[in-house]
Amino acid sequence: MDKQTINDILNKLKDGELHEYHVTKEQFLSFREVLVAREDFKHFRGIAQQGGHVVYRYLKEPRS
C-alpha cells in the first residue's frame, strides 16, 4: 500500500465517506507511518482486533 492510497483512505475517514477502515497486520506499519505524520493524527483511533488487525475510526474531538 503506497502513501497516496493511505492518505486517500485517511481523508475519506476524516470527511465521513468511510465510517471505519480495517488494516491488516501486514499493512499496519506502512499505514501507521503515514498516519503519525499527519497533523490530525490525534483524531484517529485505532482499535486492535484479534490476529493483529486494527480498525481505524475518525473522531471529531482529538483524543488526549
Structure, briefly:
The protein has 64 residues and is of the alpha+beta class.
Beta-strand proportion: 15-25%
Overall geometry: globular
Report the total helices: 2
Structural class: alpha+beta
Contiguous runs where pLDDT drops below 50 for at least 5 residues: none
Q: Main β-sheet, in a few words?
A: 3 strands, antiparallel
Overall domain count:
1
Mean pLDDT: 97
N- to C-terminal separation? 29 Å
H/E series: HEHEE
Task: Bin the helical content.
Answer: 25-40%
Can you list the strand order of the major beta sheet? 1-3-2
The count of DSSP E runs of length 2 or more, i.e. the number of strands, is: 3
Q: From the alpha carbons, calculate the radius of gyration and give it in angstroms.
A: 11 Å
Architecture blueprint of SSEs:
Elements: H1 3-15, E1 21-23, H2 28-36, E2 44-48, E3 54-58
Describe this structure in words.
The chain has one domain (3-58). A hairpin with a 5-residue loop joins strand 2 (44-48) and strand 3. The longest helix is centred in the N-terminal third of the chain and has 13 residues, at 3-15. Strands 1-3-2 form a three-stranded antiparallel β-sheet. It has two helices and three strands; from the N terminus they run αβαββ. With 64 residues, it is an alpha+beta fold. It starts with a helix and ends in a 6-residue tail after the last strand. The chain has helices at residues 3-15, 28-36; strands spanning 21-23, 44-48, 54-58.
